Write the structure tokens for this entry.
Amino acid sequence: MRDEATRISLKCPRRSGKSTVTAALAAYESAVRGVPSVIAAPSFRQSRWLADKIEQMLRGELVQRSANRMTLTNGTEIHVLTSNRDSGRGAGGSVYLDECAWLDPATITALIPATASDSRFRLVMLSTPGLPRGAFYESQQDDSGFSVHNVTVEDVGHYTDLEQLKRDLGP
């Protein structure tokens, strides 16, 4: 969360806090810095979970909440979307793509321009590893222009028997 880059790619294992980080970044950027945010997740369930988590983090800062939009006391808005390329058109602000490797490519393409109108706006891609293709995969490459962060299963404290986990999952 301390990375100030405008393009960030974060690859993490399952159950490592990616969605919580996504929610925290959007809440901070919107409440403290006054930067509008757009968050996209592959499913409605994930989007609702993110909205609920953001609401918990913004106690006292939230004026209004609808199905896919929150308005803060400072007037900043947070839009929480599912993988639907039309739902993000026209939105502006920092874009957080939760489970980016699994988002519809058209959604990613539709949302990236939202970050272009203001130097404070960021594009943050967070995901578990996916197939070796697509926007998230490209963002993880050395020449991508993204600040790349990788969290391994060893970095996550709640996996107690890594050797058994590796045997269970196979090669």
User: Anything to note?
Assistant: The chain has a mean pLDDT of 84.
